[in-house]
Amino acid sequence: MATEHSIGERRLAAQLPLRRGPAIRSLAPPLRPSLLFLLLAALGCSERVSWVGFHGDALRSGWNPRESVLTAETVASDRFGKRWDSPSFDAFKGVPGRAYASPLYLEDVKLTGGPFEGRVADVVFVGTSNADVYAVSALPVRDIPAGTVLWKRHLGDPGHAIDGLRVGVLGTPVVDVDAQPPRLYLAADVQAPAAEGGAAWRVFALDLGNGNVLPGWPVLLDPSTVVPVNQNGPATFLDASKLSQRGGLAISPDGHLLYVPFGGYFGGSVGWLVAVDTVTPRVASSFSSAPELEGRANGGIWASGGPAVDTDGSVFAVTGNSPPVNLERTWGASVLRWAPGVPLQLTGTYTAWNHCQLDNGDIDLSGSGVTLLPEVRGTSTPRLAVVGGKQGNVYLLDRDHLPGGLDTRPDCNWKSPIDSPPDGSLWDPAAPRPYYRGGSPGPLNVFGPYSEDDGWAMKAKARSTPAVFQAENGTTYVVATGSTKDPLDLVTPRPPSVARLRVVTPSASRPAFLELEAYEMTLVFRSPGTPVISSNGGRDAIAWIVEPNVGRLDNLVTAPPATLHAVDVMRMQALWSSKPGDLFPGAKYYHPVVARGQVIVATDRVTGFGLERSAF
Question: Is the dihedral of CA 4, 477, 314, 126 positive or negative?
Answer without folding.
Answer: negative
